[in-house]
Specification:
One of its GO terms (molecular function) is ATP binding. It comes from Streptomyces salinarius. Belongs to the ABC transporter superfamily. Pfam families: ABC_tran, oligo_HPY. This protein has about 350 residues and is an alpha/beta fold. Among the domains are: about 70 residues, no CATH class; about 100 residues, no CATH class. The protein is built from 14 helices and eleven strands.
């Protein structure tokens, strides 16, 4: 993969012994089915930790549950099972508790045009959080500092502008400034550069890395782009059909992927060697999660006979894998990846 690995520049920001800032255990989010249909298991058992100053990339195809998980972490969707812990305290869902929590954890959406009120000036957009949360102090100074940190300088030049007067990159910086003005400890960024031109994406990613360095911000970056994860993240969690199927340090996962799903996602990057792996069909309906390994109906390793040769084909079809634990360690939910195969058959 081309480009420098930005997420590894400040490895001192995380350690395996410090308590996570955000911790998720056994999280489930299900949505009722229509007309008596089975519930859609959008998030189906997830453990995840994010430490202070750490950037974690959550990757996977559209529809795999990434955005639902991100929203559940912020209390925007109430889990049907499991728990979310922030700074050692379980997340409570009263209006007062959620308001206090959202001063410390902020969401950055992928479409700045859709998340900015076209009738409000940049100043009012950024100041809105201060007004909602009743933060004391000089509002003008706080807005100017947030805009400057987001790369809009001199900030006063943007105060009276409206979103339609800004470029796409500038609008995304305004969204980030609106999150920064409350001085949060965690950003959850849902596809933060998906709607931007390629020339602007690198600038926004560099901004997120700088904010981590300058402010000690932690971040969960939701993306379908493994190239983005390579350039920004310390760790990566690969999600499929509501569950994390591979996780670990980003360089280890993306240079030596163990799960066939991760390998398929990586194979379609422009700089990837070999022939792209084309997965058949779409991810299954989350109302009807397949038995056994939830990836087995699309798995090229099973379809190609490699799982049979490794003696795990029956397990792939019938034996469900456990939820991967939180923490920093590399883990994979795959019978084939865990099988005792000859070295030449191992991925990577």
């Amino acid at each position: 993969m081309s480009g420098s690995k930005g997420g590894g520049e400040d490895s001192s920001t995380t350690t395996g012994t410090e308590a996570p800032l955000l911790s998720v255990r056994g999280l489930h989010v299900a949505f009722p089915g229509r007309r008596g249909a089975a519930a859609a298991r959008a998030v189906d058992g997830v453990d995840l930790d994010i430490r202070r100053g750490e950037i974690v990339a959550l990757v996977g195809e559209s529809g795999c549950g990434k955005t639902t998980l991100a929203r559940a972490l912020l209390g925007l969707v109430r889990p049907t099972g499991g728990r979310v812990t922030f700074d050692g305290a379980s997340l409570a869902y009263s209006a007062r508790a959620l308001k206090a929590y959202r001063r410390r954890a902020q969401l950055v959406l992928q479409d700045p045009s859709g998340s900015l009120n076209p009738r409000h000036t940049v100043y009012d957009i950024v100041a809105e959080g201060l007004r909602i949360h009743g933060r004391a102090g000089d509002e003008r100074t706080a807005v100017a500092e947030a805009l400057a940190r987001a790369g809009l300088r001199p900030p006063e030049r943007f105060f009276l502008r409206y979103p339609h007067e800004l470029s796409g990159g500038q609008r995304q910086r305004v969204v980030i400034a609106g999150a920064l003005v409350l001085r949060p400890e965690l950003l959850v960024a849902d596809e933060p550069v998906a709607s931007l031109d390629a020339s602007v994406r690198g600038e926004i990613l560099a901004l997120l890395l700088r904010l981590r360095t300058e402010l000690g911000l932690a971040a969960l970056v939701v993306t379908h782009d493994l190239g983005l994860a390579w350039n920004i993240a310390d760790r990566v969690a690969v999600m499929y059909l509501g569950r994390i199927v591979e996780t670990g340090p980003v360089e280890q996962v993306l240079t030596a992927p163990r799960h066939p799903y991760t390998r398929a996602l990586l194979s379609v990057l422009p700089e990837a060697p070999g022939t792209p792996v084309v997965l058949t069909g779409e991810p299954p309906d989350p109302s009807y999660v397949p038995g056994g390994c939830r990836f087995h109906v699309r798995c090229p390793v099973l379809a190609g006979g490699e799982a049979e040769r490794a003696g795990v084909a029956d397990a792939c079809r019938t034996t469900e894998l456990e939820i991967l634990r939180g923490g920093d360690a590399s883990q994979v939910a795959c019978h084939w990846a865990r099988a005792d195969r000859p070295a030449a058959g191992r991925p990577g």
